[in-house]
Amino acid sequence: MSKSSTKTPAERVINPEGTTNFRDLGGYVAYDGSDVAWRTLFRSDSLDRLTEEGVETFLALGIRTVVNLRSENVDTVDVPGVTSAANMIPLPWHMTGAIEDVCQTYRNFVWDNLNVFREVFLLLADAENLPLLFHCAAGKDRTGVLAAVILKSLGVADEIICADYVLSGELNPDWGVDRGNIEAALDEIERFGGIEALLLKHIDIDQPTLKAVKNNLLAS
C-alpha cells in the first residue's frame, strides 16, 4: 500500500455498493491549520449503478445536492431514492477534442470550464446546498480537476491535492492514473495568477462568496 493510502482515514472511502470511487473530501489540512469539514463535500464516479443497498448508504450521508459533470448527451440517471432526496444539477463539462497529450487535456480543462467552476462555487456558498456531491463517469478526470480547484481555494497544499487525485488509481489500479495530469492542471491555475486570481478575476467570484465557501467547507 502506498504512503498516501496509509495516510487516508478509513472513513474517507465510502463506496456505496455500485460505486468504486466515492469518497469524502473532509479532513484535509487547509488554511491556518484548519481542516476541510467531514461529511460536507463528496466526489464520486457515476451513481447510475447504485444497488438498493448502495442507495441506502447514499441516503444516510444526507446529501442535498448532486452535481453531474457528464456531457450534455448523457442524461442525469433517475436513481430511485437519490433523485427524490437530492437536488440533481447537470453542469456539463466542456471537453476539447481528442488530444494525445493527456497533460494538455488537463490544462485545457481549467481554461474551458470556468463557467462550471463558477456555478459550483455559487452552490457551495449557500449552506442550504450542503452536503454536496459532484461526479462524472469514473470520478477521476473531470471530478479530479474540480476537486483540485475547490481544495486549492481552501488552502489545501498541492501535495495533498495530488495525493487525493492519485487515490482514484489506488482504488482502481487498472485505470493507470498519472499524477502528472493533475500537476499540469495545478500549473495551469498558476498561469492564471494563482487560485484567487482564477476565482476573483476570471470566474468573477467576489470575496464575500469565497468567504462563504470557506466558512461552509472548513471545520470550525
Number of strands: 5
Query: Could you give the order of strands across the largest sheet?
Result: 1-2-5-3-4
Measured as a percent range, the helix fraction is 40-55%
Number of domains: 1
Question: Cα-atom Rg, whole angstroms?
Answer: 16 Å
State the end-to-end CA separation.
32 Å
List the helices and strands and how they pair.
Elements: H1 3-6, E1 23-24, E2 41-44, H2 52-60, E3 65-68, E4 87-90, H3 102-112, H4 114-124, E5 132-135, H5 142-153, H6 158-171, H7 179-191, H8 195-202, H9 207-217
Parallel strand pairs: 2-5, 3-4, 3-5
Antiparallel strand pairs: 1-2
Helix pairs in contact: 3-7, 5-6, 5-7, 6-7
Characterization of the model:
The protein has 220 residues and is α/β, with parallel strands linked by helices. It has one domain (9-217): Protein tyrosine phosphatase superfamily (Protein-Tyrosine Phosphatase, Chain A). 42% of the residues lie in helices and 8% in strands. The chain has nine helices and five strands, in the order αββαββααβααααα. It has a five-stranded mixed beta sheet, with helices on one face. Helix 5 packs antiparallel against helix 6. The chain is globular.
